[in-house]
Structure formats: C-alpha cells, structure tokens
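Hello again,

I reread your note about wanting to compare the complex against the isolated chains. To keep things tidy I'm splitting this into two emails, and this first one only covers the full assembly. Below are the input lines as submitted, including protein chains and any nucleic acid or small-molecule components. They are followed by the predicted structure of everything together. The single-chain runs will come separately.
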Amino acid sequence: MTSARPITIKDIAKRFHCSPSTVSRALNDHPAINEDTRRNIKEYALEVGYQKNEVSLSLLNKKTATLGVVVPSIGHYYETAVIEGLHAVLQPLGYTLNICVTNENYLLEKEYLTKLLSNRIEGIFLSVAQETYDAGYYEHLEQVNQRHTPLIFIDREYETFETSRATVDDYHGAFAAVEHLIQMGYRHIAHLKGPNGLTVTEQRFKGYIDCLRKYNLDISEELIINTNFKVESAIVPTKRLLDLPLPPDAIFGVNDQVAIGAMRVAKDRGLRIPQDIGLVGFDNSPITAYTYPSLTTVGRPGRKIGMEASRLFLNQLNASEDFRHENIVLPAELIIRESTLRLS
Amino acid sequence: MTSARPITIKDIAKRFHCSPSTVSRALNDHPAINEDTRRNIKEYALEVGYQKNEVSLSLLNKKTATLGVVVPSIGHYYETAVIEGLHAVLQPLGYTLNICVTNENYLLEKEYLTKLLSNRIEGIFLSVAQETYDAGYYEHLEQVNQRHTPLIFIDREYETFETSRATVDDYHGAFAAVEHLIQMGYRHIAHLKGPNGLTVTEQRFKGYIDCLRKYNLDISEELIINTNFKVESAIVPTKRLLDLPLPPDAIFGVNDQVAIGAMRVAKDRGLRIPQDIGLVGFDNSPITAYTYPSLTTVGRPGRKIGMEASRLFLNQLNASEDFRHENIVLPAELIIRESTLRLS
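Full-complex prediction:
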C-alpha cells in the first residue's frame, strides 16, 4: 500500500473476503466473530496502520445485539421448543430475542418485519404466516435482504426464496407413523386431519395418503375428518368415526392433542388400546409419555431446529463473499409407545 | 385567552386535565383515545385556534404503537393465555407486541427493559423474574416510570411498587382445592410442590397448609415433595409417596402436568381414581378435561388477565392528572371433575 490514502475498514474487508461489518465487529471484540478471525483481523489492522475513523464507525458500531423471532403462534409445544433452542445458543453470546406473534396474518407479519428493521435488529428468524404463504407474498422479505439483515426460515418456509433455513421433514414423519400402524396389523386407518390448507396439515395428510397407497390399502373419504389441532376438536369427529358401520381400527392424529382427545372417546366406548384400536399422535409433547396408555407419536426436534437456525445465523454474520445459503432438513422421529404396540 | 402567545398542546392538556401526549394523540386520531375525548379535544383546539408546531410535535407524534411483554417463560399454558388476552384487545387497536423471555434472570430482565425503552415502546407488561423478586431489585423498574411509560404487572409482582397490576389469587385457589378434597372424604393429603422459593410455589403451598390447619388435619413432611413443574418430575416423588407405610389417599399437584404424572403412576399401581386416591391439578390446561379420568383442577383466567392488563394500560395512557393505579386480583376457580368425585 503506497498510496497516502488512510486504510479503511473496507480495505481490510476486501483483504479477508468478508463484509465491512464483520471487520468492525472483529475490531470491537463482538462475541459472534470467532476468535481466530478476530485475531487475524486485528493483527492485520495493526500491521497496515489502520486508524479508527470514529465518525464513520459510529453507525456500524451501534449494534443492538437484538434478534427478531416472527412466528404464527406460541401456543404449542413445538414453537416454544424452537425458541428455547434459539435462546440456548444466542443468549450466552449476548443476544436478546424479540418474539412477535403473527396469528397467521400477512399484514401483521409485514408490520413486525418493518418495525424490527427500524429497530436495527441484527437478524430475523421467521416461520411464514399461512396467509403470506398462500398468497405468495415476497416483497416484505426482500426488504430484509436489501438491508443485508440475515433472514433464517424456521419451520414454515418459501422453497424458492433465497435464504438459509432449518425445517423438519413432516411428510416422512407422517409416512413412518402410518407405516408403523400397518406393520402392527392395523388395516382400516383413519386420519384426524388439521385445518385444510395449512402446510403442516397437508404434508402430514400427504404422508398418510402415500403410505396407504404404497400398501394398496383403500383410501376412504369418510375416514378423514378435519380438526383445529385442539383436544376438544377431536371429540365429535372420533365419535363419528366409531359410529361408522365399519369403524377404523386405528387413528392417526395430526398432533398429540387430537390423538389424546380420540383416546378419551375410545376409552369411554370401552375400547381397549391398542388391542381394539391403535392411536398415533404428532409432536412428542412431554405429556404423551405419561398418558394411560402412553401415546405413540412423531417427534419434531424443535430445540434442535432452534439451535441449527442459530448456527445458520452466525455463519451468515461471519460470512465471506462466497457465502452460500444452507438448507437444513431434520428428520422427524417415530416414537413407539403403548398405544400401538399390539403384539399379535 | 387574551395573550398573543400561540396556544400550545400544553394549554389544551391543562384545560382537559390530561397529559400533552393524550392531546397529541387525540389530534392525530390515535385509536387508543376514546371517541368522545378525541372529539372534545379537537373541537376545543379548533375553537381556540390551535396551530400545530410541526417541529416540536415531531417527537411526540413518533409513536411506535409497540408494547413490551416481559415474562419469565412462555412454555406453559397460562402464559400463552395471558399473551393471547393482550393480543385480543391490543392488536385491533393497532398495537404490536414484543415478547421477551427472561428465564427468571434479573440481568436479562434489566437488559430487555432498557432495550424496549430505547426502542420507544409505549408500555410494558411485566411478570417479574424470580431472581429480581428474591433480590428485591427496583431500579430498573424506576427507569420505566421516569420515562412515563406505563408499566403493568401481570402475574408475579412487587406488592409495594407503585403501578397497576392484574394478578390471580393462587393462595385461595389452592385452599379451595384442598378443601374440596377434604369434603370428598380424603384425609391424608399429599402435595407435589413446585421448586422452593418461587412465588407461585409458595402461595399454593401456603393454601395447602392453611387448609389442613383449618380442618385440624396433620401436616406431615413426608407427604410434601418437590417437583420442577414438569410431568416427568412427578414420577419418582409419586412412587415414593405410594411406597410409604401410610400412603396418601389424595395428591394435590402444584400444576396439571405434575398431577397427570401422578395419575400415570397411580394407574400403574392398579389404584382406582377417585375411589382409592383423589388427584387435583392447577391451571385447567385444555388436556385436563380429556384425561381418563378427567382431572379436577384450579383454573387461572389467563386470557382474562391479559385483557384486564390491556384495559389498565389504556386507562393509564388516557389518564388525567388525578390518575390512580389499579390493583385487579381475579379469583382462581375450582373445576371439579372425575379425579376427585368420590361419592361415598
């Protein structure tokens, strides 16, 4: 460097193939920058005689150490587990989380993103609202990218939108649940479905249908009834199923709540579980290990999703110019318990 | 008004015995100001020839319509119900909520409050972290008051701190639960307690003890065992209780999860519920109506607490000078179900 022009943060960034804000963070000992990178950048800065320009740095340095978490709801075990995973990784690094609940509403989601950006949060974890997803709205996400704020999809996501994501494979989880029922000898399997149109509903429904097809079992419309995910919404549908001329010998519930509602109705009818009827839920909420009988279910690794999403965020923050978005899909895990363990 | 000095917002505020920001909101059709007040203020402003001073107003008008909700956790049914109640009232008025989880940590609570204030939120709903409560820290709350930002306690609170609050009467809820067990003929009543020191634990424990005293029943240390609120934490304690030379004929659980864990152990031992052993939980989480047998429990009106807290916030926002803080205590409600309904 022979020029008399003073060395700037941009010069250093160019040298390390990273962003100016990474350099700024490294020089200011920001905890999100790994130690080697910090040391290398600081040594180089010293070597080339870099001098802080306090004025131009003031904006870059004004880090809020705040992250936004935008989710459709916090009423279920899975979402709180994801948030717990985010906390577990990010709080020790000095980050705080602003949790925003959209109630599946697009306008609210958009408003939250705008407000988070204007509060200069450093990253956003987003599970897209159903309305947003259905309508295919993108622009409010593009404003996040334009601000170079890392955006990580958790749970519900746009497949075609270019960003990192950590999601669970619901489809194969549902498939495995129904396959297990078939292997246990159940043949006439009903499905207590979620509300139509929700991604999570349709993925699990598809897993159910495809598995029945694979084993050449009949798909019967009268064995598929909607619920709203709540335990009480399973009561009337289950009664209807058990009143059929040919009632089901197993029920696959869209989630644990619904399967527990079905369990109650089956017991009130004097049915033995799993001998007379098999039951499977979804989510592996803590209670399912202690119902009587305990409930076979499909576990979604919520906490792990939160931790993986944190890692994706930190990677992007420290990214060099050849950074590529990552797509993490964690498997859902079948957990076999008493409610299906029919030994014939 | 004969003076040539132009009429200011402060003059109007004095006339209506309200704060300047209420006047500013009324003139700008802020939804939180009721219609009559808005109309009266606007008519008066027109009458006295008030002219907006754009510069001095710019700060006042820069409302964020954002509120902070600072809670120790979001993992239980009760907290999400409170937040749902806040959403139900405040979202239609155009407010968004920033939810912050302190994990019972004082430093984190303090940091969240500072960040929320620096983001110019318009009000804070707070359930004090256990650490804060135990140490009696106040200063971080006083900074909220100094900024004239409404602060509403929900759930856990400082009795002596001067602010509005909406809480549930846990003590009498627990008392009623134990009294009901006694009326059903149970005499040797155990308590699966929460972690020592937590307010919610100690209030329920006190209700249990005082009720036993009232009915001259023995208080036995071996019948009181700690849990951590989680379903799995009830398993070993319940086994220990049932292995006693004189086992309990009823168990009062600190929450529903713990009572459901106890239910599982009792069933595995072949005990009939409620004939051989009675069980009571706390919270009225949705699942309790559908366990087999259904669980007697104490309902906390979480959604209603959220709605009352919203009302307290709006009252304070529109307050005149003689504003007094309000203290709302909602009763907990005993819900009698199959797990205690022993008809002798």
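For quick reference: Chain A touches chain B through 38 residues (CB under 8 Å).

B.
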